Amino acid sequence: MPMFQWEGTTKDGSSKQGAMEASSAGEVEDRLRSLSIEPTKVGKQKKSLQLKIPGLGGKVPVKTLVIFTRQMATMIDAGLPLVQCLEILGGSEPNKLFADTIASVKETVESGNTFADALKRHPKIFDDLFVNLVAAGEMGGILDTILNRLASYTETSMKLRAKVRGAMKYPLSVLAVSLIITYGLLTKVIPTFGGMFKSMGKKELPAITEFMMGISVKATEYSPLIVGGTIAFVFVFRRVVATEKGRIAWDTFTLKTPMFGTLIRKTAVAKFTRTLGTLISSGVPILDSLEIVARTAGNKVIEAGVLYTRDKIAEGKSIGAPMMETGIFPKMVVQMISVGESTGAMDVMLSKIADFYEDEVEQAVDGIMAMMEPLIMVVLGGIIGSVMIAMYMPIFQMGDAVSG
Question: How far apart, in whole angstroms, are the C-alpha atoms of residue 326 and residue 394?
Fold first, then answer.
């Protein structure tokens, strides 16, 4: 079937556009009106040349997945059949990779499989958490409610991840810029001044100038070794972290770092409680929930702690004691979860803990940013100021000698 490009307006007056596969323009218009979109322009999509490079696949943005989940929930709540929902969303999805994925899911569902089984065939887009929640929703007949929960959970996780990444990227990017500036001063600026001093016959230089020029000579001399060593270090580090032991060692180190370790731990607690609460409230058994949480933890140390807790619960123990034994989770968190378990309201308690720790993460990020900014300014100012003083001090001395 041909692909049609369309433009339209919603009831609130906002503009929408996209692409839809249909037999005719009239069919596109009918589908859009069923979605409360008044079509203003519908036309066949022009074929374009696409270059596909083997090994380089696309990636579905998290926001796209959230929109898809919300729309699915709305359509199912309105009483539309699952296959029709997938057909409409797949036809109007502008992301080619995701549109193809939805089409594949639709075909799998049409062949007699469940929606969860169809999603499970695309693990790079729909993770274990997504698939298991959908399966729980299908079994309980509350798929629309589950999809809304999934969308809310994904949005919250996306915001939290973005905040933490921003806190991590800021000092690292500034550190990288500082190193590049320092390297440029040592290899380009200082040698220029050194040549000028020699041409002027200046033999005795201030100690700070001699020191800087000595570092400059070494930096220029060993420049290929420094660049090659840096590249080799990054390559070896990535290979080591890709191994099981290397990843455990790195994750252990990050949790123990003075400033960022606390932030990572709070983020892990927020993610753990939010994910576990979402799964339990959706009807997923506690053992299955803990296994899913462990796989989506993103940290091998925390993953091992969650799996240890799961194994102890499988032996008949309550959740509190093994969680405390891991030494990963704060005492307050363990106590609140234990209270939730004893009162039968664990999902509510987990949600409250997640809200608290998400606020804690936000405050920690703001605190790190506030502390890093003046620290970075002092470091950068100190480096550049030291170089400037070292280079201009001989010039000032020569000026004093001439005036004398």
Answer: 61
User: 355 and 221 share a domain?
Assistant: yes
User: Per-residue pLDDT tens for 210-262?
Assistant: 888 888 888 778 878 888 898 999 899 999 988 888 888 988 888 888 777 88
Higher pLDDT, 125 or 394: 125
Please state the pTM of the whole predicted model.
0.63
Tell me how far apart the alpha carbons of residues 234 and 232 are, in angstroms, rounded to a whole number.
Answer: 6
Q: Cα separation of 138 and 127, whole Å?
A: 17
86: CATH: 1.20.81.30
Q: Do 170 and 116 lie in a common domain?
A: no
Residue 50 in any domain: the answer is: no
Domain that holds residue 253: 161-399
Domain boundary among 123, 153, 183: 153
**Total structural domains in the chain?**
2
Q: Give the 3-state secondary structure of residue 7.
A: strand
223 φψ region: left (φ > 0), alpha (ψ -120 to 50), beta (else): alpha
CA distance 118 to 109: 6
Closest CA to 69 of 153, 9, 162, 174: 153
